[in-house]
Amino acid sequence: MRVVVDLARCQGYAQCAFLAPDTFRMQGEEALAFHSSPDDAQRDQVLRAAAACPVQAILVETSGPS
Ligand code: SF4
């Protein structure tokens, strides 16, 4: 799966880092670091994080049926 975060849109709410800490991590107060190709084992966490982002900054591309 592929993850893209629109950092121009991201407001550093850290919902994603809270819900999927293996994929998203806050660096300092507002900067977000993330894995662009997390393991499929992270899928549920990542999808939950994407859904929880208040500004819909997280785009997730999954391959195959869900
Ligand atoms: S939840 Fe959304 S706004 Fe918050 S840090 Fe993650 S990507 Fe940025």
Automatic annotation (TrEMBL):
The keyword Iron applies. Its cofactor is [3Fe-4S] cluster. Keywords: 3Fe-4S, Electron transport, Iron, Iron-sulfur, Metal-binding, Transport. Transmembrane segments: none annotated. It comes from the Bacteria. This is Ferredoxin.
